[in-house]
Structures are given as structure tokens and as C-alpha cells.
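Page 37, continued from 36.
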């Protein structure tokens, strides 16, 4: 029987991004396996292997994870393996060396290399040489932004095939614009007024997402926007520290913490703008979701954001760490509803390229290059 294995450091990554792709294989008659470092239930699969993946690149735990994973791969005779997340993908490619000699195909999706233009030198010294070397242990490498694609195609193993796709896809049946009355209803349920100016940032509270920059923005410029509210949605290790900073600065009226949301689509639909202050992104899936809901986007200049935001058309890119530049762009959108509406309409058009059905179709074409069109 044909078998497929998806690997990722944590099951949440699979649950968040890859269920439609697992279903694609299931529908084609494959036995579907997943390997990750927890036992979260993943619907529709045949086997969930527990592999003690470690996310830190310098952990001694990688040897144990490699040993467990190699035994699984050597014994299960997978037709194809698709690996995700940096360390899990690295170990998977090394562990599948013998399997590839026996015909197994290995695909790696880079959801954003840690080396990129402007990245810290330690990232280049650590990840760049490893990824170039490891590229020889994959049959295909998929990237989700142009910068990553150009770099790995030029400097990676020349026998490997390289592909660029518009990410993993967003389901437009969940993310879509609503009427003004529907928006007001959604706001009322959460205690927001129709004339509040809501800017949503959906992101994990980690250093890379840079929530502190937006706190500093409100500290400096918040008085210019009396009805503005930043909605922070998410959880993470820095959540308590950011909350404490907001309370210390007495900014609770303009920065609202909504926690982790199972109704994030409703939050986007009731908002006026989407924003990202991230230091770097492979793409920025939440921004695409916001675009599908008709929101203009404000985002840092970044390789991933450049794939999504067309300057002056569906939003604005502002300079990393530049409070003044963000203020210039926000001021334009805050004071010009017609501009927001025009950019929101364009955002919907841009987001169509990232729609789930489109991404499934493009990825299926890639799979079939290695599977003799069995999907």
C-alpha cells in the first residue's frame, strides 16, 4: 500500500496548516502517517508517531529523535515523505537517506529560512551552511517567498528540484468581508463601539513578532488617534511581560489583549486594519486571512510581507523599527475611509492568489512530479 509521512516538530503545525494536504493523500488511497513531538489528536490519519523532536538547533536531544525517526522510516517503506519546520525537516532528510536509495521521495517545505536579507550574522553562520548541505538530501524543496526561492535554487544542490508556492493556503469560506451592520454586531458582542478604530495583530507573543514596537507606537502617537484600539490576539512566553508594560504605561484603553482565539475570523471581520510588526516572516498567513476579510494591511518591510502587501495598493509597508514611518501610513488610512475601502477591495483580489484551493492545486502538481501522477 502507498504510504505518506508528514513530519513537524509539533502537531499544532500539522493541525494549523496541513490537514487539507493529508486529506489529499487519504482520498488518493494512501496510508497517512504523521511524526511529531506530541500526541495531539490529528483527524483522519492512520498513524501518529511520537518522535522527540527538539526545536533548539544546539540540543543533544537531536540524536535520540534521529534514532527514533530513522527506525520508523526504515521500517515503514514510505512512498513519499513531506517534512516541515526547521529541525524536524533537517533530521527527517538525514534519517531518510537509506529510504531514498530504495525509492522513497522526500519533499521539504521551508516556511521561511532563518537566513534572509538583514538576518543576524549568527543565523547565517548557523543555518545557511546547514541548509545548503542538507538540500542534497531532498528530492524537492518548496519555498513560500521569492527571496528564499531564488537563494536556495542558486546555491543549493543542483540535482534537487526547487519550487515556489503561495504558502499553504487560506480557506475563503471562513475568511470573507461582512457588511457594516454585521461588523457592528460582531463588535457589540465583544464590547467595542461602531466608531472604534480597530487594528488587529494576531501573533504569538515572542521576540520575533515584536509587540513591544506597537506598544512604543501607542506610547508616542496614541494621543493622535483617540478612538484607536490595537487588538492583540495570541499567547506566548512574552505575553505577561507585554501586558505588564502596557499597564505600566497606562495604555490599557488603546491596547486590548483578546487572548488565543478560536473565532479569529470574527475578529478580522470586525476590524478596520490588519497589522504586523514582525521582524521577519516566511509569508504571514494571518495577513492573508485579514486581506480576505477586506482589510488593508500595515506591515514591516520583510521578504514575506512583500509577497502580500503591494505598497500603496492594498496597504503599506513601513520600515523596521521606525515609529515615524508607521505613523505616516496609519495617519493616511485613519483619516481616509475611501482609501481604506479601495485598499480593502484590492486586498481581497490579492488574497485570492493564496486561497486554499489554489495552493492545493499547485502543491498537487509538485507531488505528482515525484509520484507519477497518482494524486
Amino acid at each position: 500500500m502507498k504510504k505518506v509521512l508528514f513530519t513537524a516538530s509539533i502537531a499544532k503545525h500539522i493541525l494549523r496548516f496541513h490537514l487539507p494536504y493529508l486529506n489529499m493523500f487519504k482520498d488518493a488511497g494512501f496510508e497517512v502517517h504523521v511524526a511529531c513531538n506530541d500526541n495531539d489528536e490529528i483527524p483522519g490519519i492512520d498513524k501518529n508517531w511520537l518522535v522527540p523532536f527538539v526545536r533548539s538547533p544546539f540540543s543533544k536531544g537531536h540524536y535520540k529523535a534521529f534514532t527514533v525517526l530513522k527506525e520508523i522510516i526504515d521500517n515503514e517503506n514510505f512512498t513519499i515523505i513531506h517534512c516541515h519546520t526547521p529541525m524536524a525537516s533537517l533530521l527527517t532528510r538525514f534519517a531518510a537517506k537509506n529510504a531514498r536509495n530504495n525509492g522513497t521521495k522526500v519533499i521539504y517545505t521551508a516556511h521561511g529560512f532563518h537566513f534572509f536579507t538583514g538576518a543576524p550574522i549568527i543565523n547565517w553562520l548557523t543555518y545557511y551552511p546547514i541548509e545548503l548541505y542538507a538540500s542534497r538530501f531532498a528530492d524537492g524543496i518548496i519555498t513560500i517567498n521569492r527571496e528564499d526561492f531564488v537563494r536556495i535554487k542558486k546555491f543549493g544542490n543542483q540535482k534537487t528540484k526547487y519550487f515556489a508556492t503561495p504558502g499553504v493556503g487560506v480557506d475563503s469560506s471562513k475568511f470573507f468581508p461582512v457588511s457594516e451592520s454585521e461588523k457592528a454586531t460582531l463588535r457589540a458582542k465583544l464590547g467595542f463601539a461602531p466608531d472604534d478604530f480597530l487594528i488587529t495583530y494576531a501573533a504569538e507573543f515572542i521576540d520575533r513578532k515584536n509587540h513591544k514596537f506597537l506598544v512604543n507606537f501607542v506610547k508616542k502617537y496614541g494621543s493622535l488617534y483617540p478612538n484607536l484600539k490595537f487588538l492583540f490576539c495570541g499567547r506566548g512566553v512574552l505575553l505577561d511581560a507585554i501586558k505588564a508594560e502596557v499597564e505600566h504605561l497606562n495604555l490599557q484603553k488603546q491596547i486590548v489583549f483578546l487572548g488565543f482565539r478560536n473565532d479569529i475570523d470574527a475578529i478580522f471581520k470586525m476590524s478596520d486594519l490588519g497589522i504586523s510588526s514582525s521582524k521577519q516572516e516566511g509569508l504571514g498567513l494571518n495577513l492573508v486571512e485579514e486581506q480576505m476579510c477586506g482589510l488593508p494591511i500595515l506591515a514591516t518591510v520583510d521578504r514575506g510581507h512583500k509577497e502580500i502587501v503591494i505598497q500603496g495598493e492594498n496597504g503599506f509597508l513601513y520600515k523596521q523599527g521606525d515609529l515615524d514611518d508607521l505613523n505616516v501610513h496609519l495617519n493616511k488610512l485613519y483619516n481616509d475611509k475611501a482609501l481604506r475601502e479601495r485598499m480593502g477591495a484590492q486586498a481581497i483580489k490579492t488574497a485570492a492568489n493564496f486561497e486554499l484551493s489554489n495552493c492545493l492545486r499547485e502543491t498537487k502538481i509538485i507531488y505528482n512530479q515525484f509520484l507519477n501522477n497518482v494524486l
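The longest strand covers residues 31-36. Flag for discussion at group meeting. Residues 28 and 361 are 14 Å apart (CA to CA).
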